[in-house]
Structure of AP-1 complex subunit gamma:
Amino acid sequence: MDTVEKIVEDFASDIAMSSFSGTRLRDMIRAIRACKTAAEERAVVRRECAAIRTSISENEPHLRHRNMAKLMFIHMLGYPTHFAQMECLKLIAAAGFPEKRVGYLGLMLLLDERQEVLMLVTNSLKQDLNHPNQFIVGLALCALGNICSAEMARDLSPEVERLMRSREVNTKKKTALCSIRIVRKVPDLAENFMALAASLLKEKHHGVLISAIQLCTELCKASKDALEYLRKNCIEGLVRILRDVSNSSYAPEYDVSGIADPFLHIRALKLMRILGQGDADCSEYMNDILAQVATKTESNKNAGNAILYECVQTIMGIEATSGLRVLAINILGRFLSNRDNNIRYVALNMLMRAITVDALAVQRHRTTILECVKDADASIRKRALELVFLLVNDTNVKPLSKELIDYLNIADPDFKGDLTAKICSIVEKFSQDKLWYLDQMFKVLSLAGSHVKDDVCHALIVVLSNASELQGYSVRSLYKALQAYGKQGSLVRVAVWCIGEYGEMLVNNVGMLDGEEPVTATESDAVDAVEVALNRHSADVTTGAMCLVALLKLSSRFPSASERVRQIVGRNKENVVLELQQRSIEFSSIMQKHQSIRSSLLERMPVLDEASYLVKRATATQATISADKLALAVTPGGLKLSNGVAKPPSAPLVDLLDLSSDDAPASTIASTTTPNDFLQDLLGIGGVSSSTAGVPSTASTDILMDLLSIGSSPSQNGTPVVGHPGQESKPIPAAPEAIDLLGSLSSSTPVSEIKATSALPQAMDLLDGLSSSTSVSGLEKTAHPSITAFQSPTLKITFDFKRQPGNPRETTIHATFTNLTSSTFTDFIFQAAVPKFIQLRLDPASGNTVPANGNGSVTQGLNVTNNQQGQKPLAMRIRMSYKANGEERLEQGQVSNFPSGL
């Protein structure tokens, strides 16, 4: 019977529809889905839109709701439907529920709060909010909660407040959700809903409770007054809700995997976290119910894990007791044993935040966290490694680093880089015993040397040069590691450097430690190790250059192997790599022509200043973080970093360097040496080189000048550069004739004169006849009168001078910066530029803050060398940048009143 009635009904409906123009919604959808190309789809949509426009113009009310349904589908496909916005308002104004339902749906879908047409619907919404039919009221509330603007919120807020007191459960729920939108749009209305929201927490219906908790959460974010009010009036209600829902019996409508309404659990816990944060009284009131939820909730279901995770977040976010926090961290520890990767990931994230609250409780789960480092999932591995790094302290550094190094041997190649960096950082940060530090670094170099960065190797070499009692042990350990792991690039560099410096300790087993096994290695074996490294790593210019330097030093330490070393070095005279070719030629000349000075020339490198290296490394790290600003920091040795990295000048650099008409301006500023230039750092003995404008810094790798510690190469009339603190500007000759760097200096020539040489007019050999008795003249200091180099209404700069009699072209300037205003200058940076015939080096400043009213000053050293002394006077253009009262300022000027003779 039912089937017959349905057939009759469908037949009547078809007859009725046949008299209407256009198609039905289902026919239009079927036609669009049948389209095989986008052009066909657009044609169908254009045809339907044309039919809808015709129907609108002919004002056919009986087709309005069907046209609106089709327009909503067309809108969802992405086609414009603005021409039918007024049809929504007409449907909303209709009397029947079906028309209003389609009208409100179209209103929410086709319009938003930015449409001016929306203002016309305010009156209709107000009438529907007062309608006796609760379903029509629900439609109006739903639409208002989705698209209301600030103006509509103010106009309709009284009706929403009245409806919140309704007896209908659905109306209360929709009203609470609508109020959230109103509070977001107009936070000033939050005070109108505080009492109403608190009263809704006494309801029994879970839908109303969830909506009320959401409204309370939004009120806390919108107003501090609302937060304080809800702290006083809602805590008790929230505790009751959680207790009731936790202890409630089985209810099919709220049950999720055996858990009673987890959504209500989570909403209540989030609101508790907001109310308890920073309030000890509220937190104390919550402790019992949080402990109950944490202990009674089952963790074998996903819904239970969601509640537990939210409970842990609440415990860690409020002023909870230490016992409750331990309970929360233990829950996270259980999460780490879960098979679900998502649960383990969120647990690791939460533990990283919890370690700042209770590190000792997190330490108890160290073993489980270490297992996560070996997980198959890359995200979990990386997060666990970061957590392990935070867990390391002085007491557990040895077992943790051992576990990580053991895993390094089997770790995935993609993960080895991060793991190696963390291990090196841990060992360097927490090592108290140099022998342990060296052992761990040797293991890391052996297992993952290709992933060890150059600055880590440099730090290791600095430690080695300062640990004289461990140098023999180190060179033997590195020699054995080189035999077994010769393909690890960083290991090869460090090992080759040590063999070159301490090769005789390797051969003679000098400095044997207790329990150390002696190494049987001859002079030939040491040379073999370096030769193998040179041939294997010939494509790596840095490693090849270090191997050549090591061979040169071994030729002095092992006279019996000198001829063999000369042959190995000579084979590289025709190397396709220019750097290796140049070194080979120069080193061959040293071994052939300068036997008398070779031993003194190739002595061990002086002990590297560890404190200076720490300053330099910290400076480079800070410069990486901020290229235009260097923060003031303190190293473990108590040394303060300078303000020596200058900000990029806002004015063109040409103006700064425009000192005279015959001086070509520089196009770039000398760049700071980075730790990545391993060879330059290693051989520069603390010096910092710079590159000139547009020319690669080939002079910075001049091995001979580095070995002699002579300083910069003789300057030519090249391009001037801007001096930065800690840097020496070294112009490079354009293209001099071919010269022999190792010839025609008499044995009586002092080294200081070599340093002061201004030009090389003809071919010469810097070491011709230079005997081992070559002396370095002492430096006497000659004073000159002070000058006021610069003075403005805000800043005064004074220069004091000291001459070097052994090198009359070199002058040391002591600059004093005095603040003449009542505002303190911060981020103070001093820059200077000189003509091309002058070399300039700026030392680090004493600080970057200049006190107000002259109550103190900042000092900085400058070292200038006038290569045309006596022909042209000193000239300098200076620039000072700083902040005063948060405002950036820039001053600049030219110094031309230098004392005569400089």
User: Anything to note?
Assistant: The first strand starts at residue 255 and ends at 256. The first helix runs from residue 2 to 18.
